[in-house]
Amino acid sequence: MTTFFQWLVVLASGYQVPEALLNNNQLIDKLFGGGEGTNTARVIKFYLEWHNVLHTDILAVQKIIGTVNGWILLGLYHTAQALESVFMAVLKLFGFFC
After folding, report:
1. What would the pLDDT profile of 4-20 be if each residue is shown by its tens digit?
2. How far is CA 92 from the centre of its chain?
3. Which residues contact 30 (CB under 8 A, 6 or more apart)?
4. DSSP assignment, residue 60?
5. CA 62 – CA 39 distance, rounded (Å)
6. Does 24 have pLDDT greater than 70?
């Protein structure tokens, strides 16, 4: 019995990628100067220009998630406190804790 992944591998292995797509990697040409060796200055320049996009700062998202979690915990705390008050009032009504 074949799984979906095996079927996908068989399907992909039967497909030949055209040579025009294999040799048309414009990003590598821009970074390494046409593919002749490694040009580290261009790689460093590329990283310095794009590091803000590549490594996003998610402190604002963490602050929002922390605030929502705080609201949920406060709601659960106040709900438990209200249930405790009701439970103690019922026990006092029956004379257990006077």
Report:
1. 777 677 666 666 666 66
2. 51
3. 42
4. H
5. 38
6. no
